[in-house]
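Limitations

Structures in this collection are predictions, not experimental determinations, and the ligand pose is part of the prediction. Treat each record accordingly. The example that follows, with adenosine-5'-monophosphate-propyl ester as the small molecule, is included so readers can see exactly what is and is not provided: the inputs are given verbatim, and the output is the predicted complex.
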Amino acid sequence: MSEEKLQNLLHVSTVINPPESFVKNANVKSYEEEYKKFLDNPEVFWAEVAEELFWYRKWDKVLEWELPYAKWFVNAQTNITVNALDRHVKNGKKNKVAFFWEDEFGNEKVVTYGSLYTLVNKLANALKRAGIKKGDRVVIYMPLVIEQVAAMLACARIGAVHSVVYAGFSVPALRHRIEDAEAKMVITADVTIRRGRAIPLKQIVDEAIRDLETVEKVVVLRRLKPRVDLIGEKEIDFYKFIENEPSYCEPEVMDSEDPLFMLYTSGSTGKPKGVIHTTGGYMVGTYYSMKTVFDLKDDDIFWCTADPGWITGHSYIVYGPLVAGATQVIAEGAPNYPDFGRWWKLIEKYGVTIFYTAPTAIRMFMRAGEEWPNKYDLSSLRLLGSVGEPINPEAWLWYYKIIGKEKCPIVDTWWQTETGAVMITTIDGLPMKPGKAGKPVPGVIADVVDKEGNPVEADKGGFLVVKYPWPSMMRRIHKNPEKYESYWKTIPNCYFAGDVATKDADGYIMILGRADDVINVSGHRIGTMEVESALVSHPAVAEAAVIGKPDPVKGEAIKAFIILKSGHEPSDKLIEDLKYHVRMELGALAVPSEIEFVDKLPKTRSGKIMRRVLKAKELGMDPGDLSTLED
Ligand code: PRX
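Predicted complex:
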């Protein structure tokens, strides 16, 4: 593509058609027909998908709902691990590779469906023997290793509810999640390796569970030599734990609506909330999207660069791809360590065909220069995906041109922890518009509406909503029914996602960002209140307000405004102290990139900080209605 053509594309509202060869072979031949099939009879549509999977007992009814609650595949029984493992092992795929794993040093592991099956079964037996029963919560705090995936599946095998905590979270963040879930067990590792450095995880667990009585056992994957010490009867080595276990564990028969996992995510309150997903609907929803959104075929090599600590890893490393029988690549560590060629080298080495990553990574590689990907043969790629935040047209086109060589469609997938699976994108064959996510996936009725729920005019901003239940929707928020119901109460008869968006005359939805006090840093959701609470827990801070500011690589960066307590003076050292404090309280991803000391914060008369006023001032924008401002 010439530079001139590229510039034109950026300025005209561009439409790019996927290559004909792709469309001809796509799993879904026509988006319109598939969508119509869904609209004609949603229950028949989803039943047909579900029929492809294994159930101990089929459903009496596909869907039963009374908003805000819905049940999918009512009274059906299954176990997701039977679909993710047993089904493939018994159908000739025992030796098919499930995962190619690599670390930053190039050490590799090849794990077949057969060997993953054995590992999961042994671990499931060990969990049972340790007293973990159906419904018990198990926290998994591990790096991206095979044992992490196996730990999730072993819980699912016996009906225990896993809560995976991303290994970048710090002691208080981990403790809150263990405590809120009343977890009986924590599965962890001695270390995770990032940028060649070992980050001690076990030590963080030790501190996080101090005096927490619910935690009966800590299972530790020991990777380093000499091995870290284990203390007391509570702690056990991962491989010793499973050593003498039989290699088959009878799967727990799960009701379709039995919880499968919980996952904490940030909202507009100070504490993250535990989103609960259930078994049958989540399984069917993620499986369907593997085949349609990602066009997965039996010989594909799929690589989703997320971590199972986030929903993207749950749905598109663990459950979706394994239920669909995919071969995947996973890589522990940083994308640009030891150099900016790491990811492209892995694509070449393993012949990755479908690659799914986040805009923040694309922008980082864009800055590093195309000479890095150009060193490697990326011709195996046939489909690219993006997730987590809006992808700007410049990054989209770079991805399309430099990585996809203008022959791979890009699916810009909009979805959330709460939605469980992809909701909006351009599935196989739909023309693409850089910067616009696209249309609702078949099975989803989404729209952009005003506060009353009326559709807004084309290209006008509004709230992104979903108007009909979908199988992989969250079912509850742990111990917080009001919070759950609030998703469905803000806008009449709709699920309100928290995002603002526009829809064009062709029905393409463009996500503009969050409508609430959530910041999206490198595709990770961070609550302003979480960061503010962390800051005010520092002895020098009287008050804090936090906003998201546009950032060319991260999407948004965190800026904090701080009022100091008397006796404390602003200084560079204090700024560093405060950043360190947030890192210790929440984790590296929540550290503000800018801190400004102020004497006053804009507040409403009732004392609430008006972050939008701060943000408008910071960005030189109109602050809007100021009638509630204190003075
Ligand atoms: O604001 C949207 C943004 O990420 C939020 C969901 O975050 P989380 O639950 O952590 O899940 C992220 C991965 C699924 C959304 O409310 N978001 C996600 N995908 C996109 C996006 N914004 C724009 N375009 C996307 N493709």
